[in-house]
């Protein structure tokens, strides 16, 4: 069966922070599928804990592109920002991801980053450095999505994402409320894009 929705990325996509009753994770991907009325069998989640943008390009993008889905969700980059960060490589990988997926004619939805460094247990100097990296990443996401026509959810500008209940205790992964909120926002953005396309 062909895929209607394919999600690529790191543990945010994998669903960490939103435990499923039978084990594993639920997360925003199946929640988004439910919001859109998609059959579970047509929703594929390629997200993997610890994945960098490079890993997503190398290992997930070929599988996602081959699925020829009409909709892709992409969230990755935090692992680059908190560990092995190379600005040029980071931007190149994001451009590869979004330009490749958009070239198929699919709708692609992603998000920028809220103030994740604010919740991490790191020294003040490191928090300042991380905030600079996240600001750079948000600027890159704005440019790349603008160039490719991907949908960008503005988590950085949404005060809801500063609420503690949106996050797990580690400060890095969304709690169930965060995953639910993301899915609702993504469904709304997709509906708006669809309505605009039909009207045109």
From TrEMBL:
<dbReference type="Pfam" id="PF13472">
    <property type="entry name" value="Lipase_GDSL_2"/>
</dbReference>
<protein>
    <submittedName>
        <fullName>SGNH/GDSL hydrolase family protein</fullName>
        <ecNumber>3.1.-.-</ecNumber>
    </submittedName>
</protein>
<dbReference type="InterPro" id="IPR053140">
    <property type="entry name" value="GDSL_Rv0518-like"/>
</dbReference>
<dbReference type="GO" id="GO:0016787">
    <property type="term" value="F:hydrolase activity"/>
</dbReference>
<dbReference type="InterPro" id="IPR013830">
    <property type="entry name" value="SGNH_hydro"/>
</dbReference>
<feature type="domain" description="SGNH hydrolase-type esterase">
    <location>
        <begin position="7"/>
        <end position="179"/>
    </location>
</feature>
<dbReference type="InterPro" id="IPR036514">
    <property type="entry name" value="SGNH_hydro_sf"/>
</dbReference>
<keyword id="KW-0378">Hydrolase</keyword>
